[in-house]
Amino acid sequence: MIRWEAHSCLPLHPDASFEPLERYRAAGVHHVCINVGMDMNPLSQILPVLAAFRARLRAEPARYLIPCTVADIEHARNTGKLAVGFDLEGALPLLERPEMVALYRDLGVRQIHFAYNRNNSVAGGCHDEPQGLTALGRQMVQAVNGAGVLMDCAHTERRTTLDIMAHSRHPVVFSHANPLALADHGRNITDEQIRACAATGGVVCISGVSKFLGCDAPQASDLARHVAYVANLVGAQHVGLGLDIGFSQAGLNDDPPGAFDPGFWWPAQAGYGRGISQMRYAPIETWQTLPDALRAVGMGPQEVNGVLGDNMVRVARQVWGAEAD
């Protein structure tokens, strides 16, 4: 069994502490995918973060590795290391060039979604006017498939996600999204989207963010309730975990340079209040209590292992091995 954290957020700064990564390792997680850039972050911020994270991870080979294959993650599990992958949240860092996908892949980015809450030239965001996938977006889906990168639909509006899932040749994931039926928030997804994801062979990874769970202080039981909903709708083989923990660090400013407006990206009318400052997250250590919480909602051993990581392993084996398609 592999424990797979589909999405987490260190501060977007070259000097961000790796203490959360050590907590993941101590909690028994074998692979974590961390964000290295969003639509609001310029390349002048993304590239130093990516370069620094890569160099720092490689400087500690006894603790970490940057995976290219599932076999790398299995090696990390077997040797007590943490496999750390990267993801992009939004298509703006691609500069409207499909060939940028393969470049990021070569730097360790193995997962991407196309819009961060707001519309762009590729896709529609979940807190903007419905737009759908553009012609350029269809080219980007082909580029993601061709590069063997996981096609993610988190933060993306309903119509665009359905378009992506219709055009993708490979399974599609929601790396951190919850059922709208259980928590009425624009970041959450409809039963239609959940079914469409499952139809691709993909996985919906449940977020540990308070507003998306519909609770004030997230616990394992809250996550398990959302897992059970998706499992009952489409089968336990289509559920995973992406706690989406946003870490901050005293004295470290990781805001985008220039005139940055948090209210644009996290609009008050969508229920964010003061940006994301009021968000509460399930702690990393929730990973240690999740097995019991999943069993408490009626899951058997194979289903529990699937949710904790083996379902994402199945998708990654198919997608990451598809570069030659």
UniProtKB/TrEMBL annotation:
Name listed for the protein in its UniProt record: Peptidase M19
Any one Gene Ontology molecular-function term assigned to this protein's record: metallodipeptidase activity
Organism: Hydrogenophaga aromaticivorans
GO BP term, example: proteolysis
Top-level division of the source organism's lineage: Bacteria
InterPro entries (alphabetical): Metal_Hydrolase, Pept_M19
Taxonomic classification: Bacteria, Pseudomonadati, Pseudomonadota, Betaproteobacteria, Burkholderiales
PROSITE patterns: RENAL_DIPEPTIDASE_2
